[in-house]
């Protein structure tokens, strides 16, 4: 059993995290979306250590995080459309699934045997500083046991992965609160693989290209498994009232035991989603109910996470 330290996400903490990553050990680090479990994306051994800590199925690929377009171009082929998207949304919560570069150094285990690579340029200063300190791309799935609730605070990471990893960098609560939008970028087409805070409408406005939102059933990117982001308790959706022994997560005019957003603000709801799922999972009630939430705009990403949290498992 590994002792899990929680250190401030300052210069000393980042240096310690980089040293652990250099030894092939994963560390938890804040990003603007959720906390990530970071390791050297070019090392099969390091990627295997991420999988082992999470208990993650090996057919679920990982995102490679970079600091600039030069680093991205070393691992993936960026088409003119990809450059256009990068100009609008990077650094930020957009992941692009791109063809792998011919001599891409990314470990094949990180791509789950696919010929494509999921690439993101994060905006969070701590994650960017850690990539710079390591000197190369970092694989960083969400810092939680596979299939369980994503972490938006250092304490969430400790609860899920305590004893499995050596270090959590504490950068406070994450700002966005849900994982990045993932799109497959093809020569003249965009396919939405996972909704997030960058919506299909925003992508269409930036590119003039209609986004294909149909799910083809194949796992091409993280977060596409049917049961995912799941608490240990059953989850019931669209619940205007709670049944006995349910912790009720409210929204808007439905207060519940705790509310995602009393004012019906979807941005606030997204930022609080995983935090309240953790709170509900730790409560004495045996089940969780979630109030109805609009499925428009950012609500589509919230619905996606809740649908997977409520899926049979």
From the N-terminal CA to the C-terminal CA, the straight-line distance is: 27 Å
Give the strand order of the largest sheet, numbering strands 1, 2, ... along the chain: 2-3-7-4-6-5-9-10-11
Structural class: alpha/beta
| Elements, N to C (H/E) | EHEEHEHHEEHEHEEEHEEEEHEH
Determine the fraction of residues in helical runs and give it as a percent range.
25-40%
Total DSSP E strands: 15
Rg (C-alpha, Å) = 19 Å
Quaternary organisation: single chain
Please give the count of helices: 9
- What is the residue-mean pLDDT, rounded to a whole number? 92
Strand content: 15-25%
Low-confidence stretches: none
General shape: globular
Largest sheet: 9 strands, mixed
Give a concise summary:
The protein is an alpha/beta fold and 313 residues long. The chain has 9 helices and 15 strands.
Give a verbal description of the structure.
The chain has 9 helices and 15 strands. The protein is an alpha/beta fold and 313 residues long. The strands form 3 sheets. It has a 9-stranded mixed sheet, with helices on both faces. Strand 9 and strand 10 (189-194) form a beta hairpin. The chain is globular, with a radius of gyration of 19 Å.
